[in-house]
Amino acid sequence: MNPKDYSSPGREAERPSRKLADFLTRHGKVRIYDAGKVVFHEGDTSHWVYIILAGEAEVLRADEGGQENVIATVGPGSMFGEMGLFHDLRRTGTIRARESLKVVVFSNDDFMDAVTKLPELTIRVIRSLSNKVVAANELAADLRSQRDRWAVAYAIVRQWPEQGERVGPEVVLDPTRISTDTGVSRPGVKAVIRELARRGAIITPNPDSSGVIRSRVDYARLEQWLADSRPDAGNPDESDAAGTHAN
Fold first, then answer.
1. Distance of alpha carbon 195 from alpha carbon 202, whole angstroms
2. Which of 8, 39, 108, 233 is least surrounded, with the fewest CB atoms within 10 Å of its CB?
3. How do residues 176-233 score in pLDDT, each as one tens digit?
4. Is CATH 1.10.10.10 the classification given to domain 144-229?
5. Domain boundaries defined on the chain
């Protein structure tokens, strides 16, 4: 599956005001990165705070195989590294200039000093941290949803009577039993079954008065859906609290 972009437009950073931009350039170090240049790498130590003044950057994160994937694009006003002000964290992602990128850089100590001098900067830090917590919560919820869907579909696949047949005979799908076997809520099980029916993997589902469904299953389509929707094995942890932004 392609990684979902959790940097929703509703949480895009505001461009720095003229007053803030002037303050930042006076007190920080301005750096320019050409397109394709890396600002920092995932796993680097986090002793600096960056704020984008102009241009766009890509946020990349490595998968289990070490392949870096772009998970978000961010622009002017976006902040990186502020979590390192409070925690001794490694960078949770790589930042790479998508185009000519102008940033202002502060050491952690200098940034803490700057925050005390300009309330607007304090508000931006709070907003940035809040956005990253929201993004992390959305990511965790999405991963749980993917795992629930996969667990229910796999429980149905296990009923495949003849591995050589594309469409098996009618089977009984009991949402209560599947819920017990998988740990997915009964409404969640029924929602997955409805989705599979829309995709043609479950053919003419016919629930009885107790909610038990008798249906034929297109196991080839079901297996393909499983392959396309299988979630990653890892769990989101506190180091991912940056959401789509690297720290």
1. 9
2. 233
3. 888 888 888 888 888 888 888 888 888 876 777 777 888 888 877 887 777 776 655 4
4. yes
5. 9-141+235-240, 144-229
